[in-house]
Write a structure and sequence with these properties.
Number of strands: 9
Distance between the termini: 27 Å
Bound molecules: S-adenosylmethionine
CATH architecture of the largest domain: 3-Layer(aba) Sandwich
Number of domains: 2
Function: Specifically methylates guanosine-37 in various tRNAs.
Largest sheet: 5 strands, parallel
Enzyme class: transferase
CATH class of the largest domain: Alpha Beta
CATH topology of the largest domain: Alpha/beta knot
Strand content: 15-25%
Oligomer: single chain
Mean pLDDT: 88
Shape: elongated
Subcellular location: Cytoplasm
Organism: Paracraurococcus lichenis
Radius of gyration: 21 Å
CATH superfamily of the largest domain: SPOUT methyltransferase, trefoil knot domain
Order of helices and strands: EHEEEHEHEHEHEEHHHH
Low-confidence stretches: 247-271
GO molecular function: tRNA (guanine(37)-N1)-methyltransferase activity
Length: about 280
């Protein structure tokens, strides 16, 4: 089945954008995934096609109207199979590789991109949108965030990456950063390649790579290293969709948000499946 991405945006012409190139672009043309963009402005009802208004309570900036955004979301939901619906926002759960793998295991995603000060919170709640951030900084709009998230997903779809570029051995695949890479020439500007890589001894190469991955993770990302080192006993982040709940061996002791109806009732906004508003 084709993995289906629907983007709800004020700038539909930004898609597929860079995802039309390289591996993602080839995958798109081969039908491994599909993308459609829904222009929020097309769902405005007044003569001026207004999509935003001033914030209640005062303050700077404009807020995207819930009625207009909701109508655009409804069209995106109706256009494909039932999929998690996400709102890209710097206030969301920070995207990581485990979330990406979980999204890829499903039929696709609906992505709502904000602009201005963001979207009226009532539409986020009414549709049960999963709020996702791509990092602790603020972009001017959700579109670049949607492109980043989609790129991370699409490259993992079957048939998109070649075997040579397999995502099995790379940073974050098993909780470690990746070891460094080298190619020809073996000596460049007086800098030699680590001799073990020229030895032809596969077991020694694998041992060196593992040790380097551990060293780099320990030095650069103590947070990842602590989680990796204590993986069997430390709680990890709560799972966010049923796919993650099914794969609990990855996250042994984290609370499960969606599998238990009581948990789900306690945290409905983390589900991400479109609600019938
Ligand atoms: C200028 S930002 C709004 C920032 C918002 N007023 C705040 O302080 O949280 C406009 C839009 O960009 C998107 N955006 C900005 N930073 C993002 C991030 N780190 N991750 C995901 N989306 C982001 C969101 O869709 C947001 O609604």
């Amino acid at each position: 089945m084709t993995w289906q991405a629907s983007v709800v945006t004020l700038f539909p012409e930004m898609f597929p954008g860079p995802l039309g190139q390289s591996l993602a672009g080839k995958g798109l043309r081969k039908g491994r995934w599909a993308i459609d963009a829904f222009d929020i402005r097309g769902f405005a009802t007044d003569r001026h096609r207004t999509v935003d208004d001033t914030p209640f309570g005062g303050g700077a900036g404009m807020v995207m109207r819930p009625d207009v955004v909701d109508a655009a979301l409804a069209a995106a939901i109706a256009a494909g199979p039932e999929r998690p619906a996400l709102y890209l926002t710097p206030r969301g759960r920070v995207l990581d590789q485990a979330m990406v793998r979980d999204f890829v295991a499903g039929p696709g995603l609906i992505l709502l991109c904000g602009r201005y000060e963001g979207v009226d919170q009532r539409v986020v709640e009414a549709r049960g949108l999963l709020e996702v951030s791509i990092g602790d900084y603020v972009l001017s709009g959700g579109e670049p965030a949607a492109l980043v998230l989609l790129d991370a997903c699409v490259r993992l779809l079957p048939g998109v990456m070649g075997a040579a570029e397999s995502g099995v051995e790379e940073s974050h695949a098993d909780g470690l950063l990746e070891y460094p890479h080298y190619t020809r020439p073996a000596d460049w500007q007086g800098r030699a390649v680590p001799p073990v890589l020229l030895s032809g001894h596969h077991a020694e190469v694998a041992k060196w790579r593992r040790a380097e991955a551990e060293r780099i993770t320990r030095e650069r990302r103590p947070d990842l290293w602590a989680r990796h080192a204590g993986r069997d006993r430390a709680p990890s982040a709560p799972c966010v969709t049923e796919n993650q709940c099914a794969g609990r061996d990855r996250a042994p002791s984290a609370p499960c948000v969606t599998a238990n109806p009581q948990d789900a009732a306690a945290a409905p906004a983390m589900d991400g499946r479109p609600a019938a508003a």
